[in-house]
Amino acid sequence: VGTTRRRLLASAGLAAGGVVSGSLPAAAAARGGRLPFHGRCQGGITTPPQGHLRFTSFDVAGSRADLAGLLLAWSEAAARMCDGDPVGPVGGDPSTAPVDTGDAYGLPASRLTVTIGFGPSLFDGRFGLRAHRPAALADLPAFRGDRLDAARSGGDIGVQACADDPQVAFHAVRTLARIGRGVVTARWAQAGFDSAPDGRTGRNLMGFKDGTNNLDASDAVAMHRNVWVGDGDDPAWMRGGTYLVARRIRIRIERWDASDLDEQETDVGRRKVSGAPFGARSEFAPVVPEHEPRHSHIMLANPRKAASEAERILRRGYSFDDGLLPDGKIDAGLFFAAFQRDPRRQFVPIQRRLAAHDLLGEYLIHTGSALFAVPPGCRPGGYVGDTLL
Ligand code: HEM
Residue 254, Cα to own-chain centre: how many angstroms? Predict the structure, then answer.
């Protein structure tokens, strides 16, 4: 097993004696916020949202063995980083590039999670995986109003790193990219932030509380019903996994900021300051459909009809700020990310309604889109994707 592992690691371009070396310098003195990488399900899904996101989508070039070696090397490195450890020596040998880049050295683990998913293109035949493509990983249809940029969309493998420290999240994805050099090339990347007051709902860049009626990630029954691929679902390699839909949605900030409060609240279907639904005072008061503006965002997203409960998704998006567009407008918005058991029955019907009628739509531009099958977690010694490969 040892030599197989070393061969795979080497085929992934990882220096021998790096991740595979047993002894590491006494590092990461502060070990705050360690979340286990290993487990039945991957982290970063039901994990309470960390403050920072770094997402990178990669394309793979190589053989199936290269792919397996890559995922093993990534899983081992991710487990170390989630423990707050560097992936190898930061210093020592003046004649080689340090195995760990050092940018997170000495920082606490910061609740780092690394979540790995497989895009539809991974199943196109290059790796002999065509027969294993889940039916639920059907390409998303085009939606009305989409302005998708191919350079911000798709990818063979998506890696979501979340942490309470942006530098820890950056280090994690940068390190995986470095380990994968020669096998993967980065296709697009997105950084994001989520600023939520302790135990309360955070606000998005429109100034509204976002997440009020999200699925409760600590509700195991809801997670089994709407998020996790179940024991009876196919394909078997996805059981304990889920599907991620990511959309980079630019908000037309200047136009939104010029709209009056009455319009903003009608578009969302909630009050801005309190987050309460129409006809109520408190954020978590039940939504009364008769009191809601027709075509408000929340009523289109969840019409509260017989089929609506089964459509509900676990939203886990992050705001982004990418500076300015060439015309001087702010290039910021929401990197929408949602986990679900079957996008064909959850994200797609919701987004069809939103694209057709959502009052918020005037202020939103979908500029990127990606879909990933997120396999179950792995055991120590295994790797994310070992149920597939
Ligand atoms: C920049 C884009 C978006 C913004 C600013 C936004 C904002 C909001 C806000 C303020 C709420 C109300 C509070 C809450 O319950 O979380 C909400 C609810 C919701 N949104 Fe969005 N949203 C966006 C895009 C989307 C997209 C693309 C989808 C799915 C296709 C979606 C699905 C939902 C759902 C399912 C709810 C909960 C509705 C309910 O059950 O009451 N949103 N969103």
Answer: 27
